[in-house]
Amino acid sequence: MSDKPITDRIIKASAVIALAHLILKMAGLIQAKAGAHYMSTSEYEAILVVAFDGVILALFFIGEEVIGPSFLPVFLKEKDDKGEDAAWLFTSIFVSIQFIILIVVVSILMLFPDFIISVLTKWSPEENPNRYPLLKESIVWLAPSLICLSLGSTTYMLLNGYKKFFLAAIGDAAWKFCVVIALVVGIGIFNYDYKAILFGLLIGSLAKLITHLFGLLSHLTRFRVSFNWNNPAMKTVLLLILPLLAGILFAKFRDIFNNVYVLSGISSSVKGGSEGLMQANNLGKKLFDGINAIVPYAIHIALLPFFCELVDQKDTRKLGELISKCIR
After folding, report:
1. DSSP string, 51-94
2. Cα 212 to Cα 162: distance, rounded to the nearest angstrom
3. CB of 237 closer than 8 Å to CB of 70
4. How many angstroms separate the CA atoms of 310 and 295, rounded?
5. Helix ranges (DSSP H) in 257-315
6. 8 Å CB contact between 200 and 183
7. Buried/exposed code over 82-101 (b: 16+ C-beta within 10 A; e: otherwise)
8. 268 pLDDT tier (thresholds 50, 70, 90)
9. How far apart are CA 153 and CA 65, in angstroms?
10. Is 286 in contact with 36 (CB distance < 8 Å)?
11. CA dist 160 → 14, 52, 109, 166, 316 (Å)
12. Are 233 and 90 in contact (CB under 8 A)?
């Protein structure tokens, strides 16, 4: 590690991440505003609230919240103890298995959209003749974006492991800006229909992954497809994932139940003025989450790689000092 005081490095990293996330959150708010302006309420709720936030992003966040605290500590330990080659052997196995899991999940989404809709909402083709077919089509179209988004969670952690915090966050901003361009240019200027936003979400997810891969370009030569479950690092990461997964699944199912299932039932059963309830709730959450995530989330991201390094080095004195200063 650098001779520069670790707290100074964390403060600098936090500032860089906060700046990147400010750009990201501004892009997200612009996306929400543009979506509300250029899309009808039915389109917004079916595509952005249920199909994307309720299905694709929910699955993405389950993976991201599992990968963050499990993958990065093991990657850094392999890198510090055994070197880059060992760390990237572990990464190769992890990503190869992750890709297969994603192919299975995406296939289920594309083949059984009606089942997904019946589980997550109270909508039916009879009661929701406009939103139901739009939602079904959107799930099928958007399912492949989960591959790039989820792999982007792993590349995000790799970039954080190499202290490339800004580039990691800018990948998310690139994704948001692609969606904004699709809304403003595709729908606003050229008057394309809702498929413009579907295309923007797909291209945006790819833009995120490409941005991350650009930052990892010098390391990608070490990547090799491998499915060696017996790698000790894979066993370690699996032990970390299992307890995390239980809590994360409960939290995400709770969010989907409150923000999608319950509200879809209200919008289906109440006559007069109920349409737009899911959209209003979604926009309100985006505003709160955008403000809340900038500083606390930036500090959390900056701290994790430094914590992992100090733990691997068994430097309890510096670790204690760092925790004390962070609490203050």
Report:
1. IIIIIIIHHHHHHHHHHHHHHHHHHHHHHHHH-HHHHHHHHHHH
2. 12
3. yes
4. 23
5. 262-269, 277-312
6. yes
7. eeeebbbbbbbbbbebbeee
8. low
9. 9
10. no
11. 12, 26, 31, 9, 22
12. yes
- Which two structure tokens, joined as six digits, stand for 293? 């995530």
Confidence of residue 52 (pLDDT cuts 50, 70, 90): very high
* Contacts of 306-310 spanning 24+ positions with Cβ under 8 A: 306/6, 306/9, 306/10, 308/72, 308/73, 308/76, 308/77, 309/1, 309/76, 309/80, 310/6
List the one residue out of 255, 188, 250, 135 whose CA is nearest residue 127.
Answer: 135
The pair of structure tokens assigned to 114 is 């009606």
Choose among 249, 252, 305: nearest CA to 71.
305
The pair of three-digit structure tokens given for residue 145, joined into one six-digit string: 């974006």
Instruction: Confirm if 315 and 30 have CB atoms less than 8 A apart.
Output: no
List, in order, residues 6 or more apart from 63 with CB less than 8 Å away.
98, 150, 153
Q: How far apart are CA 34 and CA 182, in angstroms?
A: 10
Reported as type and span, the H/E element at residue 14 is helix 6-38
- Averaged pLDDT of the chain: 85
Residue 130 phi, psi (nearest 5)? -90, -45
